[in-house]
Every structure is written in structure tokens, then in C-alpha cells.
Amino acid sequence: RHFFEDFGLETRIARYHNIFGPQGTWRGGREKVIAALCRKIAMAKDGDEIEVWGDGMQLRSFLHVNECVEGTIRLMRSEHTGPFNIGSSFMVDVRTLFYTLAEIAGKRVTPRFVPGPVGTTRRTSDNAAILEALGWAPAVPSHYDLAENYEWIEEQVRLCG
Q: What single string gives the DSSP state of each residue in 36-82?
């Protein structure tokens, strides 16, 4: 916004919410919950217990990177400057996310919920402004893209350890 005010440079402001997908951070402590669970499940053997922070009831929404790019392109091509949230309002609890990823992996693993950083109990993206201004909302709930993400992280685990 300052570049517009100071130099007349046309700008757009987007606030991204829980973006995930292949090529994302999947290890090292900076990854989001989807990537962390994918990595832990990929590294596990059938019958393993996997440590998951919190009680599993935290609610989150996630947006696949392809949907994020679509929303960003629409914003950049518009006359609207924002700020706009680019995220999903479809919420899932961490427990359901865990079991969905385990099913995708074809593994019989169980979560062991432990105290740890969990953030807020409920976090989602309010997309009302971008829907009204641009008529854009994510096309599908993010869980349809989880298999692609799991497969990519599983490959990284095999290649990198």
C-alpha cells in the first residue's frame, strides 16, 4: 500500500491462510499440520503410534496451492486492491485429518495426542470480501487434494530420509 501511496505503483493485498501442496515445507519444524502429519505417517510402520499435538479437536481450514494461485490471479487481474483473504472456509478437525491421511497412506496407525503448541482451537478464512468483490471461492474442499500432497511428501521421505 505504501508503494502505491509513495510511488503510484499499482498493488494488491492478499492474506493467505494455511496453504498446502507439493513443494511445500514438510520438515524442520516450520511445516503446517498437513505436512507434519504426512511426514509422520510416511515414516511410520503399520501399528505405530504417532505423536500429534493437542487433543485432535482443533479446527483448521486449508487451501491447496492451485486454488491459492487461482485466487491470486483473479485478484491481480481485478481493479480491487484488497486486502482480501485467500483461503478456505471448509473446516476439518486434526483428528479427522489424521485418519484421512492414514487411509490415503494405506497404513494402520493411531494418533497419540500429547501436550504441545496447538494455536487457537478454531481457525478459518473469512472469504466474504473476495467472494463479493471477485465472485471467487475455492472450487473444492481441500481434502480432495490431500492424496497428491501425501504422495509427494512420502516420496521426499524416501529420497531424503
A: HHHHHHHH--TT-EEEEES-S--EEE-EEHHHHHHHHHHHHHSS---
Query: For residues 113 and 78, is the Cβ–Cβ distance under 8 A?
Result: no
Q: Where are the alpha helices (DSSP H) in the chain?
A: 2-7, 33-43, 65-77, 94-105, 128-134, 146-160
- Bridge-based pairing of strands 59-61 and 91-93 is antiparallel
Average pLDDT, the chain: 91
The answer to whether 72 and 17 are in contact (CB under 8 A) is no
pLDDT value of residue 123: 79
Q: Which residues pair with 59 in a beta bridge?
A: 93, 122
Length reported for the chain:
161
The predicted-structure confidence for 113-158, as pLDDT tens digits, reads as follows: 998 877 777 778 899 999 999 999 988 665 568 999 999 999 999 9
Cα–Cα distance measured from residue 107 to residue 104, given in angstroms and rounded to the nearest whole number: 8
Is beta strand 63-64 parallel, antiparallel or unpaired with respect to 19-20? parallel
